[in-house]
Amino acid sequence: MTDNKTLPAEVPTLYIVPTPIGNLGDITQRALDVLSSVDVIAAEDTRHTGKLLSHFNIQTKTFALHDHNEQQKAQVLVEKLLAGESIALVSDAGTPLISDPGYHLVTQCRQAGVKVVPLPGACAVITALSASGLPSDRFSFEGFLPAKSKGRKDKFMEIAKVERTCIFYESPHRITESLQDMLSVLGPEREVVLARELTKTYETIQGMPLGELIEWIEEDENRKRGEMVLLIHGHREQADEALPDEALRTLAILTKELPLKKAAALAAEIYNLKKNALYKWGLENLD
């Protein structure tokens, strides 16, 4: 018996419907109910989505909405919604809008006062993070890495000192070059996790220092295949990044006249150091 709350609402609604990222068993009953009941399914690739619909014997008609036509076609779908139809938005895999089309459609719907209802479901970013063993209290999803080496190195420079876990998508034909660019910026000791073919037969989640991970991938060409998620441990202060004696002496002098927090901020500015590191040292070593 289906819960009435899983069925489409009486008012015209745009549903954001996640689809499996590999294993068809991961689709939810609510997603199936919505896909079966709406008037139109807006799909990134109608042929790809058609296979999913056929597998579950869903007859709903589809409408192509992809990166190359979304800005033009979104208004057509908004007009359908305003005319009383309900629409489900899907991407080829996972949750729509996460490195997939849908942003312009959702924005126009909200501007037009159309009800937008998101369904929870599969997402490669969260799936990979949950099993990575990397800190998950603070993380950022950065999308696909740039196609060119310079762009990738610039991106890695941007996150080099970031303390949160950073997550990227990458394609198999660029994985070797991307990891080499990462190595040149972040060094061989940075912990990185490669999650590939999530939920599929050859699912692999491997984490180790970057230098070792590159060697591991090179050992087997199969490890370069499939859909990939790269997760990078946030920056951590290393033992060889000890605070300079001069900075500590300056901090000790400043704390005679200033609160520790202010003194740490000033010393950090003078010596180009992290104020939190100086503050922590002060708490542990100064009266």
Per-chain topology:
Blueprint: E1 13-16, H1 29-37, E2 40-43, H2 46-55, E3 62-64, H3 70-82, E4 87-90, H4 103-111, E5 115-118, H5 124-132, E6 139-144, H6 149-159, E7 165-170, H7 175-186, E8 191-196, E9 204-209, H8 210-218, E10 228-232, H9 245-254, H10 260-271, H11 275-285
Parallel strand pairs: 1-4, 1-5, 2-3, 2-4, 6-7
Antiparallel strand pairs: 7-10, 8-9, 8-10
Write structural notes for this entry:
By secondary structure, the chain is of the alpha/beta class. Helices cover 40% and strands 17% of the residues. It is built from eleven helices and ten strands. It has a five-stranded parallel sheet with strand order 3-2-4-1-5, with helices on both faces. Helix 3 packs parallel to helix 4. The termini are far apart. Its main location: cytoplasm. InterPro entries: 4pyrrol_Mease, 4pyrrol_Methylase_sf, 4pyrrole_Mease_sub1, 4pyrrole_Mease_sub2, rRNA_ssu_MeTfrase_I, RsmI_HTH, SAM_MeTrfase_RsmI_CS. It catalyses: cytidine(1402) in 16S rRNA + S-adenosyl-L-methionine = 2'-O-methylcytidine(1402) in 16S rRNA + S-adenosyl-L-homocysteine + H(+).
Please state the CA-atom Rg, rounded to the nearest Å.
Answer: 25 Å
Number of helices: 11
Dominant shape? elongated
Class computed from helices, strands and strand pairing: alpha/beta
Q: How would you state the average pLDDT, rounded?
A: 93
Uncertain spans: none
- Largest β-sheet summary: 5 strands, parallel
Order of helices and strands: EHEHEHEHEHEHEHEEHEHHH
Kindly report how far apart the N and C termini lie. Answer: 67 Å
Number of strands: 10
